[in-house]
Amino acid sequence: xxxxxxxxxxxxxxxxxxxxxxxxxxVLTAPERVSxxxxxxxxxAVRETGYTVNQSARSxxxxxARTILTAMPGIGNPFYSTILDAVVAAATKRGYGVLVTSRxxxxxxxxxxxxxxxxxxxxxxxxDGFLDTRKLHAIVGDGTAMPMVAAYDELPDPQINSVITDxxxxxxxxxxxxxxxxxxxxxHISGPSRNTFPNERLVGFRKAMFERRLEVxxxxxxxxxxxxxxxxxxxxxxxxxxxxxxxVFAANDEMAIGLIAELRSHGIECPRDISIMxxxxxxxxxxxxxxxxxxxxxxxxxxxxxxxxxxxILENPAASAEPAHxxxxxxxxxxxxxxxxxxxxxHR
Length: 348
Prior knowledge:
41% of the residues lie in helices and 15% in strands. The protein is of the alpha/beta class. The longest helix is centred in the C-terminal third of the chain and has 17 residues, at 299-315.
């Protein structure tokens, strides 16, 4: 009969990484106190020895940091400020703290793993759609799924818990609003696509145009990245066209504002010459000139429901055999940047 396999110890990891046991302990409990090269060597050693699987997965089950890790694509992005406020408020109400990270290095999964290997976080709220969820699951090991809820603008991996908004349908309602104002020549600034699938707001735009038998001009569809600069870049191209759309739907407010600003510098005024609408309803949208027509995402709900979903999973894992999927509705907010075709005045 084969003898049972010896459970790896911290000393085994230390020997494998050629460091002291104290260094391994520091990497697992306070990684910021250790150099990146040492962190990488020890992290690789715990994986290769099996220490991650046999010790850390057990710790995740038996101990609670009562802390949620929140991964965002950019903490300075105004879209996430309301969400983060809601996350902190909802977590505090349930007795949990919140750690916030943004994109870290070339391999974010490696950095995030340190929080879980050192038991500094119990679960992950994922707002960054560019992180590879397969790598994140591998952090926990032992075949156990990471306690995680994803909440970002593209439909995530169906095998993970998610809280998202109705991006495709909201984009259709945006086009419908412009159509109701008499616009038939409509352009779009799209957001980036993820996971090899086209951006859902672009899909919704195309679907709405098709259903209304409106021609989609490829030169009026601009690839953006949700920054104001990409909106300005679209404006520079658009200003040079002899034939322009009478309205543009941008996939977020920052791109819409960048577009308005750039067109204004070329003497093209919104909504006198072109109607423009955005998506998200960030705080500047109602205070910009002209105030921005947009699709309002329920950001407070996104943050609160994502936290509640994650904590319910952490506190009652037996009840979460199937992934939770929550889809919230966006709201059309009509302001001054869209006008009835031919009037040159804001639609109210």
